[in-house]
Design a protein that fits this description.
heterodimer, A: 16 helices, disordered N terminus, B: 13 helices, 0% strand, globular
């Protein structure tokens, strides 16, 4: 509490230091500075949600065309449609796959970045390159590397005798989602890796010294010091990371377009096609609201269940 | 403490694996874009082009509207960068420094906006933009990109603001500086790394954005780079050399920016980690 108070500065709640300007002036300026962001988010992120609720109650097919109010029919259609449930299931597989690959990759990388030697310190920078390059380039890279005829991975595996016929990743229903998970994980894993690394850096080394004296090995140190100390960061990271991952459309859209044989039609792709290919906007809107409700509910439960104690957020 | 040979070896192997996984694919595509068409599809991949071949790049500039796409993308990304920096820096100054009442509510709103899936908002945003005539304009993409990039930027900026001693604001106030002067003359100069970080994020967000660009832009001469490349990718007979040359070039601006402010970006991320 004392700490907070100290950090308030001249314009904090504790203003009224009798300084040269009127008490309400900084507040006014504050709101004026905040306004653009608030208006922006309200207009582009919040208002559209309400607009979606409205659209979901109409039989809009093409935007701008006349449409009528049809009540909850769209919701009934969505709940009854096998495509919706397939999308949800594939999205779940997508989340789990990305979660496993990225968690392992991010932790392993973070532990490596922690090393104090020069090359590890340099790696802290270049490890983010896959995230820096545009998604479309990522799509080209992995389509090329995993190409069944010319790809270096298929070549390598055949030359070393692991497989006998060319590996067709994105062209096969079984391989498509897996290939996409690898591609997407490559694109994103460095971000959580650097964040986890940052959190680890804040752990006082005295804790590790004490543990070593008590005879704790590397695994015990990781389990009883590292993990608890970065629990709060992991909590936020999991939430934001999973929401971002769920919403990924671009890489799937660029590589498989939901195919082959609908094998990678996760929820966002399904939504995109319902709205902009089948032109069933009303139905897509209803789907949006159901998904949004689901995400909000799961996030709420997650926060209630897993929020580390003693955090103000 | 001396490190055992086994441990040193393990470190090297681990770092090598990381380098191959992270940089290998990028290296591979850039190198392949300089190979002649035969060498590209050769069954024995070569790690280095047998002869430097610039044909793919020549074709890219001569027979595709690549330069137009490049111009459009650059313009939109630059605008997104400038507006996002302005919006997020001023908002985070109000939230973290002026600490206006309700700042925490805005903070929650910012967090909630992570939850809202961009794709899901494509439909209503399209319809709103259609009614105000924004469809098929670069402004439409700038507006959308700023909205989606700003929340994360506000989060990133917190660490940078926290690293500037609040006592400096106190001193400025004692000297009679108002809040705007404090922001402009005291905080901004010290915030340069933060501004670089946020600018980088906004630029990359815009540069890579595909979904909204594919729906909100209709005419060919206004398309952005990713959409243009998608068109090359979508052809029945994919010209891999051309595609890899195009993809390699799209990586350049981000890589240059990252080389300039990447250090600060990493600092911003790691500072954000402990909030």
């Amino acid at each position: 509490m004392l700490l907070r108070r100290k950090r308030l500065g001249p314009y904090g709640y504790a203003r009224g230091l009798g300084l040269s300007w009127n008490r309400s002036y900084p507040t006014l300026i504050g709101y004026a500075l905040l306004a653009p962001l608030a208006v922006w988010i309200a207009l582009i992120l919040v208002y559209p949600v309400f607009n979606t609720v409205y659209l979901s109650l109409t039989n809009t097919r093409i935007i701008g065309a006349p449409s009528g109010f049809i009540g909850l029919t769209n919701y009934q259609t969505v709940i009854a449609s096998p495509e919706f449930w397939r999308g949800l299931l594939l999205s779940l597989a997508w989340l789990v796959g990305n979660g496993i690959v990225q968690t392992i990759a991010a932790f392993a990388t973070a532990l490596l970045l922690r090393q104090s030697w020069r090359f590890a310190r340099q790696a802290r920078i270049w490890v983010l390159l896959p995230w820096v390059i545009p998604t479309v380039a990522v799509a080209v890279i992995w389509q090329w590397m995993l190409n069944s005829n010319y790809g270096i991975i298929s070549h390598g595996l055949q030359a070393s005798g692991v497989i006998s016929s060319p590996l067709n990743v994105f062209g096969s229903p079984a391989g498509a989602l897996l290939g996409l998970i690898v591609t997407n994980s490559w694109h994103w894993f460095a971000l959580p890796a650097v964040v986890i690394f940052g959190a680890m850096q804040t752990i006082p080394s005295a804790l590790y010294d004490a543990a070593k004296v008590d005879g704790a090995g590397p695994i015990a140190q990781f389990r009883y010091i590292t993990l608890p100390m970065i629990a709060r960061t992991l909590f936020v990271l999991e939430l934001v990371g999973n929401l971002w991952t769920f919403n990924v459309l671009d890489i799937i859209f660029l590589i498989t377009r939901g195919g082959p044989a609908d094998a990678s039609l996760t929820m966002p792709v399904e939504l995109y096609y319902t709205a902009f290919k089948a032109w069933r906007i009303g139905e897509a809107a209803a789907m949006t609201i159901v998904v949004l409700g689901l995400l909000a509910a799961v996030s709420f439960l997650y926060v209630r269940r897993f929020a580390p104690r003693g955090t103000g957020a | 403490m001396s490190v055992s040979i086994v441990e040193r070896l393990a470190r090297w192997v681990a770092l090598l694996v990381l380098a191959v996984v992270v940089l290998g694919p990028i290296y591979w595509i850039v190198v392949s874009s300089f190979k002649n068409p035969h060498e590209i599809i050769s069954t024995e991949p070569s790690l280095w082009p047998s002869a430097l071949y610039l044909g793919h790049y020549e074709k890219l500039f001569a027979s595709t509207p690549y330069v137009t796409y490049l111009t459009n993308s650059t313009l939109i990304a630059a605008m997104t960068m400038v507006v996002t920096v302005a919006v997020s820096v001023s908002a985070s100054f109000a939230m973290y420094r002026l600490r206006v009442r309700g700042a925490s509510a805005i903070g929650t709103l910012v967090l909630l906006s992570y939850l809202i899936p961009g794709t899901l908002l494509l439909v209503p945003i399209y319809s709103s933009f259609a009614s105000v005539g924004l469809i098929d304009t670069p402004a439409a993409l700038v507006i959308v990109n700023v909205a989606f990039a700003s929340p994360f930027c506000v989060w990133l900026l917190r660490g940078f603001f926290d690293s500037i001693p609040i006592e400096l604001d106190d001193a400025a106030a004692v000297d009679g500086a108002g809040p705007l002067a404090t922001l402009w003359r005291v905080n901004l100069p010290l915030l340069a790394p933060g501004i670089g970080t946020v600018g980088l994020y906004a630029f990359i967000f815009s540069w890579t954005e595909v979904v909204f660009a594919s729906q909100l832009i209709l005419s060919d001469q206004r398309k952005t780079l990713p959409i243009g490349l998608t068109a090359i990718m979508g052809q029945y007979n994919i010209d891999w050399g051309l595609l890899m040359a195009g993809a390699s070039l799209t990586m350049v601006p981000g890589a240059i920016l990252f080389a300039a402010v990447g250090r600060y970006f990493v600092r911003g991320l790691t500072a954000g980690a402990v909030q």
